Amino acid sequence: MSKIIKQLSVFVENKKGELSDITTLLASSNVSIKSINLSDASDFGILRLIVSDNDKAKAILNEAGFSSRFTDVFAVEVSDHIGSFNSVIKALAKENINIEYTYTLSNAQIGAFIFKVSDRELTHAIKTLESDGINLLSEV
């Protein structure tokens, strides 16, 4: 089972109502948001989404005029104790794998983080974490 998760990245204007427009489109089309992260610059931002139906979400957003693309990421389960997140970071650092960004995954049952590394380091990152006994999620 693949540990690679498809993240939908959407280019958004930094203006009132833009996020609401996107979430309304997804909700009205029965697409569930599993995790969300919004990074902004002065006029534009990148909305990163893990959703229940990638292809449907991308088609809906593209039809509405939003520019979007898929990015490969992975999700790591972290337990609720001091140092759990740090063990993931240290395992990647030990192998000189650069983390481009990370954010939390919304899940009431477990603690988890989404990680983005370069495409060429993705497989190596996953193998490194698995060999260190860190649980990666195959679906979210």
From TrEMBL:
PROSITE patterns recorded: ACT
Query: Locate the ACT domain: which residues?
Result: 7-81
The superkingdom of the source organism is Bacteria
List the InterPro entries: ACT-like_dom_sf (IPR045865), ACT_dom (IPR002912), ACT_dom_pair (IPR045739)
A Pfam family assignment? ACT_8
- Entries under PANTHER family matching the protein: ACETOLACTATE SYNTHASE, SMALL SUBUNIT (PTHR40099)
Q: Which protein, by its recorded name, is this?
A: Amino acid-binding ACT domain protein
